[in-house]
Amino acid sequence: MTILVTGVAGFIGYHVAEALLARGERVLGIDNMNSYYDTKLKQSRLHRLERHPHFAYVFADLGRAQALNAAVHKRLGDLTGIIHLAAQAGVRHSIDHPTDYVGPNLSGHLNILEVGRHAPQLKHMVYASSSSVYGNSRRIPFAIDDPVDTPTSLYAATKRADELMSISYAQLYKLPLTGLRFFTVFGPWGRPDMAYYRFTEAILAGEKIEVFGDGSVERDFTYIDDIVDGVIAALDRPPATDQAMPHRLYNLGSDRPVSLNHLIDLVEKACGKKAERNIFPPAAGDVKATWADLSLSKADLGYEPKTSLAEGIEKFVAWYRAYKSN
């Protein structure tokens, strides 16, 4: 039996695949290796996975149904689980490049729902949503039953659309689905477009860091190992198909929001150097704060984030130094 992981060369996909392989699962990974950020990092992640005898990789663009079906049709009967993480990421990128999100985030999500619908042994599909769906919600912390009808970016709008498509498929086809709203994931092998990565890169290179706004915005930074624990806990707990709608949503965060200024302090400490700042106006699409209400995730999934931002940043900087020295 096999678990399909989409976006397997991505940050979260790579770590999830590693964890599944470590517990003895067979993993089929799909990725289109897009160039949103340096593909060398994606290749490095993929090479590490390919050392494992129970891992197989296929190149495919999820936005193209025919290509996706060709990639999975031989293994369709073996799929017992799908973890769908592939997407065009980036709130800021979506402001200037909105059409980049149609194929991966909308068509891609629909196409993978179709794969799940036609996989005869599928027990559960888990998919990535985002804390971005909450927009500038005035209710803090963000709870699953909060209104999410005012997205502040197209990226957020596509993630909410994915949730709605999934709700539809769960009702129509009794396809068991769980959506996970991730809150600012960070850690080793992370994405170079994320603030903590860019700050580390600039500080160690002796360059100024770019800060948008006054640094007071707050984010619920969540360490990658905690996210992986939540993803696998969700996979192992499919909603019952005898329900009218076998679909659930959960927040995966740390429940410990901190300011951007505090993040910079921690990166400076881990790097052993102070940062010089270039200050820019607040970026379009950015929200003032994110904060995950984890009550449902803890009750249903046994989710308990363990790694603090300070500990996680130290681990990231240590990884970054080692990765760049190779």
Summarize the structure in words.
It is built from 11 helices and 13 strands. By secondary structure, it is of the alpha/beta class. It has one domain (2-185, 224-253, 292-306): Rossmann fold, CATH 3.40.50. The chain has a 7-stranded parallel beta sheet, sandwiched between helices. Strand 1 (2-6), helix 1 and strand 2 (26-31) form a beta-alpha-beta unit. The longest helix is centred in the middle third of the chain and has 20 residues, at 154-173. The radius of gyration is 19 Å and the shape is globular. The model has no long low-confidence stretch (mean pLDDT 95).
Let me know the CATH homologous superfamily.
NAD(P)-binding Rossmann-like Domain
**Which architecture per CATH?**
3-Layer(aba) Sandwich
User: What separation lies between the terminal Cα atoms?
Assistant: 36 Å
Give a short account of the largest sheet.
Answer: 7 strands, parallel
Mind telling me the C-alpha Rg? 19 Å
User: Portion of residues in helices?
Assistant: 40-55%
Based on DSSP secondary structure assignment, what is the total number of beta strands? 13
Count of DSSP helices?
A: 11
Overall, the morphology is globular
User: What is the average per-residue confidence, as pLDDT, rounded to a whole number?
Assistant: 95
CATH topology: Rossmann fold
